[in-house]
């Protein structure tokens, strides 16, 4: 049995204390945490330069806790389960110091992260970050750090990493979650939410409720995660963007829509694109979770590539505009329309372009490859969810699917169909 880690107390203090409802982005993220039964930990292991001290890492943790209000946030729950938040102006957190003894320190750090991922996090009593350092022969060699996705999305995380590296001391940028929630309750915020609900309801009332054909057989295990790497897509997408003037994210979304209808035979296609919402006033660089899944519908069948790109480009404008809404309220709209139509409306088809603003443009030669990473019975996945990432020389698309809705073979065919469509 491993010895208990040494625990270093880290005191912190910051501004912005207060209580209030969750912001729309927080509500959406909290819904995912509840649904997936995980605290959505992000992060991992980082090797540290020789000579790094425990005090230096404790100071980094203190900086993060003091500067960013979401790091100092805990949740409260009403009797009916409705969450609210409290931002603290001061507190204490612990940095764990783990001795590697005779083990590989990197593997020790990885095991710390693995254990944390499996442990539950009590959002009412714990801070949403866990940090440790690993010590080998008296030297600090690695850091292990996980924070909940509830703290921030990918764009906010990039801001956080930049600022912590430079120890920025200027005031934090943008509207913090409590301020966001205040605007969202204002007349202007309520008007926007009502408009988003009308937009969604317009789609919900006309779309066919079943979005996937019934699988010929249900695979076991049920939930599958695959990865597709495509140098061909990384060459084709910039070429298409230059020729058509359509941005690369919209191109990939259109390829996804076109491949879906070709493989499944379902048209129009209904997709939930993840939208950063960073284009809204006061939200560009704020460290918090803002991304929400919008809703779009597009007739994608029987179109040439450039006509498909133009059609998807047109519908994304409204989809992105109305991907900012009160999550619980929108769930009620979906449930009401489904009840009126007499059957559930399937909306579990997602697209998430996670590439950063600086995108790799140099494409390496080589063939595309696909592999199934894991098949499992739990935890569950959405019916279909794809994530797009830049890796050197290629584009990587990760797919998560529920084989009760789409077979693994059809899932792979969708990804390969995107590449084929791009080259048509």
Automatic annotation (TrEMBL):
Question: Superkingdom of this entry's organism?
Answer: Bacteria
Q: Name one Pfam family in it.
A: Condensation
Recorded hits in Gene3D superfamilies, A to Z, give: Chloramphenicol acetyltransferase-like domain, Nonribosomal peptide synthetase, condensation domain
Stored SUPFAM superfamilies: CoA-dependent acyltransferases
The Condensation domain, residue ranges: 58-287
**Protein name (database record):** Condensation domain-containing protein
Give the organism's phylogenetic lineage. Answer: Bacteria, Bacillati, Actinomycetota, Actinomycetes, Micromonosporales
